[in-house]
Amino acid sequence: MIAYFDCFSGISGDMTLGALVDAGVPLLKLKHELARLPVKGYRLTSREVKKAGMRATKVDLILNDPSKSPLSKGGLKGRHASGARRWKDIEKIIDGSTLSESIKQKGLLIFKRLFEAEARVHGGRFDEVHLHELGAVDCIVDIFGSLIGLDILGIDTIYSSSVNVGSGSIRSEHGLLPVPAPASVELLKGVPVYSSGVKFELTTPTGAALISSLSAGFGPMPNIQIVKAGVGAGDRDFKDQPNILRMFIGEKAEKKSQGSGVRSQKSEDPITVIETNIDDMNPQVYEYVMEKLFKAGALDVFLTQIIMKKGRPGIKLSVLCNEDKKGPLSEIILKETTSIGLRFYTAERKTLQREIVSIDTKHGKVRVKKSRLGKEIQKASPEYEDCRKIAKKFNIPLLEVLKAVSS
User: Fold this and answer.
1) pLDDT at 223 over 90
2) pLDDT, greater one: 143 or 386
3) Dihedral angle sign, alpha carbons of residues 347, 350, 356, 359
4) I need a surface site. Which of 67, 118, 205, 401 has the fewest CB within 10 A?
């Protein structure tokens, strides 16, 4: 299933939870799954509200006693407490949960990006940065509640509109800050954003972290058949626009050729690109990882030599795939490599129409891939593995086999 987030009024953690509950995630089931985290001292409620005349669902997180730590012993202190909220504290909470490994890894990735953003903004070391508001229980619940809700709805791929960030200023523990907040700016690098002029922080750092980490691409709504929709509400009311986040859920719509029920073969299609930079892994592992990625449905996998910061040599691992394979392939990369973060974007590609045919040679059958675009472009290439087996079996040069098949 595909989910498309319409961020015309920005995005925040509670708006995302509201959209998910409105789209059919049972609040009771969401609470049950969140209980797998060692986080206590809060409760979730949902209610129907109206924002500028539009119905929406508002999900609220309420601390049982804001003066006390809302997290279990050994975890973080709450929003109103003075304890440290460092990466190691968040990591301990996530590792100590009984959530699925997939949701754990996604949550770790999102929180790591939050810490990295704070470190860049405030000039601190990654392992010493305090998240302040971001480290509070509401941020943990917003992020993991969103991941759990998407999993319950069976969402494989996420797309998003351009993100409305708002304008004006906000007050924080660091004083008065411009909108978008500096941490949000870091998290939204590479994401299309704009401001409609509303004097409010429409997109929070939590919302920025969620959508920038999970979305496979940004732009107009993809070609989908909508099966359900959810509308989540924010806290503030605006006069000229509803403060809501809309989420559309559907399946990819297949174009049909006119006058028939046969699906047309398209030579132009969007694909998802997954990338990560690695500089600390045994090079022998790459072959194993590439094999697993191809078996899991990757369209292509390739390595690029790069120079990283401080002159360190590294490898950029790139994976091309269809949108529905983004989740499973990302999980393989995070499990099988030393990568701790991935990039996603959508690319357009144009391909020739292809078919595999089998031809007879004096040494046996060989599969040949034929490609064409009408009658103007026609290409053929033999399957390497078939030619390799013949070369080994008859002890003849591989180049000779390839030449014989090509001619």
Assistant:
1) no
2) 143
3) negative
4) 67
More confident: 113 or 258 = 113
Which is nearest to 247 in space by CA: 269, 232, 225, 265? 232
Strand 193-194 relative to strand 163-164, pairing? parallel
Q: Position of tokens 């209980």? A: 35
In sequence order, the 6+-apart residues with CB closer than 8 A to the CB of 108 are 91, 94, 340
Helix locations, 25-181, DSSP H: 27-34, 87-95, 101-122, 137-152
Two tokens at 158? 């996420």
The C-alpha atoms of residue 151 and residue 25 are separated, in whole angstroms, by: 10
Strands 268-278 and 343-350: antiparallel
Residues 6 or more apart whose Cβ sits within 8 Å of residue 191? 162, 163, 208, 211, 212, 215, 218
Q: Where are the alpha helices (DSSP H) in 177-259?
A: 182-187, 205-214
Average pLDDT, the chain: 84
Task: Give the DSSP letter string of 246-311.
Answer: EEEEEEEPPPB-TTSSSBP--SEEEEEEEEEEESSS-TTHHHHHHHHHHHTT-SEEEEEEEE-GGG
pLDDT digits (tens, 9 = 90+) for 277-318: 999 999 999 999 999 999 998 999 999 999 988 888 999 999
* CB-based contact 40:68 (threshold 8 Å): no
* Cα 20 from Cα 13, distance rounded (Å): 11
What's this model's pTM, rounded to 2 decimal places? 0.62
Element (H, E) at 172: strand 169-172
| Residue 161 vs residues 133, 210, 224, 248: alpha-carbon distances, Å | 26, 14, 14, 11
Do residues 235 and 59 lie in contact, with contact meaning Cβ atoms separated by under 8 Å? no
What are the pLDDT digits (tens) for 59-99?
Answer: 999 887 655 544 543 333 333 333 447 788 888 889 899 99
- Cβ–Cβ < 8 Å for 99, 33: yes
Assess contact for 14 and 33: CB atoms under 8 A.
no
Domains delineated in the chain? 2-252 (no CATH), 268-350 (3.30.70.1380), 353-406 (no CATH)
